[in-house]
Fold Metal-dependent hydrolase.
Amino acid sequence: MTHLRVIPLAAGECLNISALTQRGAAWRVQTYPAGFALLLHPLLGPVLFDTGYSARVQASMRRWPGVLYGLLTPVRLDPRETALSQLARLGFAPDEVREVIVSHLHADHVGGLRDFGAARFSLDAATYAPLRDLRGVAAIRKAFMPELLPDDFEARLHPLDFQPAPPGLSPFAVAADVFGDGSAYAVKVPGHAAGMIALIVRTTPEAVLDGDGAGLMLLAADAAWSVWGLREGLEVHPLARVIFDDAAAERRSAEQLRQWLLAHPRAGVFVSHDAPETGHV
Ligand SMILES: [Zn+2]
C-alpha cells in the first residue's frame, strides 16, 4: 500500500493570548507557529498541506483592512521560513509542487499559494463557497484575504470527492481518498472555519486504518490550538469562540477527532499552531 513521508514545517508565527487559546491558561502573549506539512508521495513528489505565512500576508496587514487582522494576531516571519524557501532548501523547485491540499482559507494557511504556479488546490468546496464573494472588512472578519489567492484560483480548484468512509475512519461518516491510493484521507472538521478538513495519512507500508494507529498521522489543521488540547478535549476560552464560523460544529469536530485518536492510540498528531509531536509514527 502506498504511504507518504510527512515533514511538519512552519512558516512564521503569530502572537495570541494563551488564555484565549486554552481555557484556564494565563493571560499572557504567546507565539504560535504557522504550521504546514510537506508530504512526499512516491509518484507525485512533493505535496503541501497548507503553506503558512508569506511576505504577502505582512504586506496586506500594512494596508486597510488587513491592518485589522494584524492588530488581532500580529505576525512574525523570517523570509527564509516561507514554504517556498524551505522547499528550495530541501531541493524542490516551486513547479515540482503539483498539488496543495488546503485545510481552510485563513490567511495563515494560504499565504504561500501564489508561489506554486503549477499546483492544483484540493479542498472541501464548502470552505470556499461562503468566502468567494467577500471583500474588504467582511472578508477580514472571516480571516480571509482574497488577494492571497492566485488570480486563476478557481480554475485550479479541485473539490475533494467525499464518499462513505472506510470503517477505520469512524466516527467520520465520509472521507475523501485524496490521491486515490489510500495513502491520505481528508475528513470534514468544520467549525473553526466552514468546510475545514483534517488529513489522516499512512506513513509506513504496514499502517492500516483499522488497527491501533501505528504508522498513521493525523494532520488536524486548526481543530485545536495544541496536540494536548486535542487529545484531552480541552476547550478554548468562550471569548475565542466568537471567531469560530460555527462554535457547535467546532466542538463536534474536536470530539470526533478525539474519538478517532482514542481508537488509534499510536497515531501521531500535528496541529498547525503547536510543535510537532515526537515519539509517534
Ligand atoms: Zn484557521
About this structure: The chain has a mean pLDDT of 92. The longest strand covers residues 5-17. The first helix runs from residue 18 to 21. The chain has one domain: 5-271.
